Amino acid sequence: MNNELKKIALIGQPNVGKSSLFNRIAKKRIAIVSDMAGTTRDIRKHQVEILDRDAIMLDTGGIDETNDEIFSNVKRKAIECAKEADIILFMVDGKKIPDDKDKELFYELQALNKKLALVVNKIDNDNELERLWSFYEFGIDEDNLFGISVSHNRGTKKLFDWIAVQLPPREVVEELNIEDDEDDFLEDFLNPIEDINEQAESEEDDELRVAIIGRVNVGKSSILNALVGEERSVVSSVEGTTIDPVDETFEYNDRKITFVDTAGLRRRGKIEGIEKFALMRTKEMLEKANLALLVLDASRELVDLDEKIAGLVDEYALGTIIVLNKWDENMDTFQALEEKVRSKFKFLYYAPIIAVSAKTGRSIDRLKDKLIEIYDNYSQRIPTSVLNKTIETATMRHALPSPSGNYLRIYYATQFETKPPRIALIMNKPNLLHFSYKRYLINFLRENMNFEGTPIHIIARKKGQRDLSDEELEEFN
């Protein structure tokens, strides 16, 4: 995300249509939209394009004057968000008359001396345009007052035109005419290259994108705040506070890390409406992530739901760390709890386990360091000569099986993909190689190289075989 882009903040009371406008501008369903007041509780950021001009949209929680634990935090964060923004869109419900709360909030925003627009939503037809007159009492200039209907897509063009005027035009960048390399990628298999230059990968490809996942109220938001070093995500003792995922990017040891604080997951039977969509968004985030923090509550018993959520991480083949939060509240020894976790999550045997306390900050720096280490393992490419020497040693220690008298031979091995590492064994009869021998080779690789925290995929192929079989595709997905 480009920090030099101008930021646009959406501010307003709950249920005025901010999330719908956010989605309209973003041109996809990013924000969670619901008729339930107060659905949006955190600040979300998304790069958008408005009439060929780029900006960062900040969507905030609805501001509501209550003593509720969540919304008192939301109001504070919304005002902080407005201070950070260059342009403020203050949104109100056009089907209601202006109230003192709206005016008070508007004047508070006006005092920030930012580009400010008053957006009156739910003006669904021409007859309802008369309602705009009552909003002139805010003291807003006519050029900065917009009557729109997001649901009917009325009046939005004028608003977008106004926003675009506030944004700088794009810089013209000359496009390079680079032809795609159409060579068979198995040429690398037939003519192994020792040192592969990965400098051409974009910086974005080298970004740590971390999905924080776990069942409801295990402390995911608290861990995010502890990792980032300041309160970014709304924290509450109320279960399910975080509904939308919240992206937060910062630098640590010269590495760019983006955390995704995912929505709390409930048992399937309890997922209704808004939280069902939140579960879908969690899966979308996992698709974009390359690392996962599986957060477990060390003060509570592990349940089947923990295992199902962990299965999502395994399904998307992410680099993984298992985080035991609230460790200070647990009286068992770490070794005893570690045994329980290992027994429950056998499929994540490669993931390190770190006990932390988001409340006291215990082991948080260690967790940051481990994230970088796991990402380096996840994205590493083993030189072909080293890989082949290791595989050769493994076959000498434990000979290839001879199923039904068939002689199996591995010609050579090569890593053809990273994130996660994927290795091809070029051999004479790949379909006869049993999965147990693949598992042996994977474990041998782990013993001799640092693959902590990352899954490893091994596939067997004939010479010249180009495409993955259906079984191999299933194995990867």
From TrEMBL:
Q: What is an example of a Pfam family matching this protein? A: KH_dom-like
Protein name per UniProt: GTPase Der
Question: Quaternary structure per UniProt?
Answer: Associates with the 50S ribosomal subunit.
The protein's matches in InterPro entries, at most eight in alphabetical order, are given as: G_ENGA, GTP-bd, GTPase_Der, KH_dom-like, KH_dom-like_a/b, P-loop_NTPase, Small_GTP-bd
**Mind telling me which Gene3D superfamilies this protein's record contains?**
3.30.300.20, P-loop containing nucleotide triphosphate hydrolases
Record-level GO BP terms: ribosome biogenesis
Q: Where does GTP 2 bind?
A: 214-221, 261-265, 325-328
HAMAP family for the chain: GTPase_Der
In what residue span(s) does the EngA-type G domain sit? 208-379
**Which gene codes for it?**
der
Instruction: List membrane-spanning regions.
Output: none
Family annotation (NCBIfam families): GTPase_EngA (TIGR03594), small_GTP (TIGR00231)
The organism's superkingdom is given as Bacteria
Taxonomic source organism: Halarcobacter ebronensis
What's an example of a GO molecular-function annotation for this chain? Answer: ribosome binding
Task: Write down the PANTHER family for this protein, in alphabetical order.
Answer: GTPASE DER
Keyword terms, alphabetized: GTP-binding, Nucleotide-binding, Repeat, Ribosome biogenesis
What task does this protein carry out? GTPase that plays an essential role in the late steps of ribosome biogenesis.
Q: Where does GTP 1 bind?
A: 12-19, 59-63, 121-124
Family label: Belongs to the TRAFAC class TrmE-Era-EngA-EngB-Septin-like GTPase superfamily. EngA (Der) GTPase family.
